[in-house]
Amino acid sequence: MRRFGPLHMTALAAGLAFLYLPMLILIAYSFNASRLVTVWGGFSTRWYASLLQNQPLLDAAWLSLQVAFVSATIATILALLAAVALVRYGRFRGRTLFSGMIGAPLIMPEVVTGLSLLLLFVALGLDRGFWTVTIAHVTLTMCFATVVIQSRLVAFDASLEEAAQDLGAPPWKAFLTVTLPILAPAVAAAWMLAFTLSLDDLVIASFTTGPSATTLPMRLYSAVRLGVTPEINAASTILIAFVAIVVVSASLVVKRELVTRP
Amino acid sequence: MSAPPVAGERGRLRAGRVLVLALPYLWLAAFFLAPFAIVARMSLSDSARALPPYAPHWEGLSRLGAFLSALDFENYALLASDTLYLDAYLSSVRLAAFATLLALAVGFPLAYAMARAPRQWQPALLVAVILPFWTSFLIRIYAWIGILRPQGFLDAVAQGLGLTDAPLGIMNTDAAVLIGMVYSYLPFMVLPVYAALERIDRSLLEAAADLGSPPWKSFWTITVPLAAPGIVAGCLLVFIPAIGEFVIPDLLGGPDTLMIGKVLWTEFFSNRDWPLSSAVAVVLLAVLLLPVIVFQRALKAREGSR
User: How far is CA B299 from CA A157, A172, B220, B239, B305, in A?
Assistant: First the structure.
């Protein structure tokens, strides 16, 4: 039996280096004192300080966090309902169309989703801004969230909920007190996925927003088009650190929960 | 077992189910299905009627009736006659296919090594591969601009090692686009391939070795066929989003880099031709549906043959 040898170790190290080196280089240069990105001018945190003076960027970041919070919350609620319908209701009229609508946005190019939603908002005569971006993000992220919750719900033992109902709990109460607590890690993971997808989206937001609402990726994109600056490196480093802390701590929580559960 | 519900109870149960289903169903019908009907309609109208893009010139749905009478296939005729669009579709498919093969070449060894790694490492390795996927797409592409641009990190390293004096000139070429795609979509390739490899029963390989099969032969006759569904899924997960990609060709590609997502963006935001960009979107969807249908056919055939 071949075991984990030096060749495997090399493949592993090379693959992980490819994934992480570009980001590590970016992070390193965010602490560069020199404005010239390739010349190392000593360690400095001046670009982080200058970020705090960049009011348009801070406004965009605040708007993006609000959009991500609201859209992830709505998307997770809709996804929970959709997952329950798909897993528990068996065959119902319109099921094929429904599961198709859940699956399609996963492979839909963002430019197409963005264009189609914009045309809808124009047809309805809605003012474009915070709410149109939020609606667009709910539509995109609820499908990802549904997949996450669905996979956990499939593995869930429905007899627990049936037992609660036999003991006299109405279906909604059995769901809230028995099923939902067990589903909680999947619901939390779905919310996080929706939150980061929304925070990250450039293309759909560009189509569906108006002049009053510029999100963080849109600001970063217009800055990036003009070239590499240490200030963008600093902003990127903060975002990378934020996501890394959330994902790693979430995975530790889920792991501990799996370990402590019999 | 539950007692059989009485009639009123069953009615209430049914009403509850309808309520649970109605919310997500109506949301998707309103914000996913209806927009496509509008795109399809828009693609058949004349550009002058839909312009200017910002004024809500056709007030709501009432004007759609007048719209319908002016429908024709002019935009599709333009797409077929102007070689720019055909070239853009072909070049998108070509670049996406190359990126998929490269991602497989980079991702398979990584997935293979992960599946072989000691059990207690595997959760951490999984997080390590998934983590970049959670990190902002835009930032990951930006990181490569810093590396590939003239006098960027790669040039500095190459010159420092004395390999070359001239800039490598990778930035703003199709090669940069390929690097960006492989980097961005690598987790999509690694995860399904790893999942397939990890499930393979190792005693099969042991049995083959006992019967005298050299390792390379066992690899091709046992490991690869058993990992095939994961490989196909990984390839689709890279190929499909890569075709419609906009950000990567826009930021890493050059003026010659032609991709259909970028063409749609330009027609929409620069030329403000809404009907034409709608027609581009409809054709793009048709191009994307093809590999999905072929995959599902193949899956059914595979199940049927067993």
Answer: 29, 38, 21, 18, 10
pLDDT of residue A61: 92
ipTM comes to 0.85
Å between B196 CA and nearest CA of chain A: 17
- Least Cα separation, residue A244 to chain B (angstroms): 7
**Helix, strand, or coil (residue B248):** helix
B113 Cβ under 8 Å from any chain A Cβ:
yes
Task: Please tell me what DSSP assigns to residue B162.
Answer: T
Q: Which carries the bigger pLDDT value, residue B116 or residue A106?
A: B116
Q: Does B123 touch chain A (CB under 8 A)?
A: yes
* Residue B69: band (very low, low, confident or very high) from pLDDT cuts 50, 70, 90: low
Domains parsed from chain A with CATH numbers? 51-260 (1.10.3720.10)
Any CB–CB contact under 8 A between B286 and chain A? Answer: no
Of the options 1.10.3720.10, 3.30.420.380, 3.20.19.10, 3.30.450.20, the CATH number for the domain spanning B82-305:
1.10.3720.10
Summarize pLDDT for B216-259 with one digit per residue, the tens. 888 888 888 888 889 998 998 899 889 989 999 999 988 888 89
- Domain ranges, ordered by start, for chain B: 82-305
Does residue A125 or residue A253 have the better pLDDT? A125
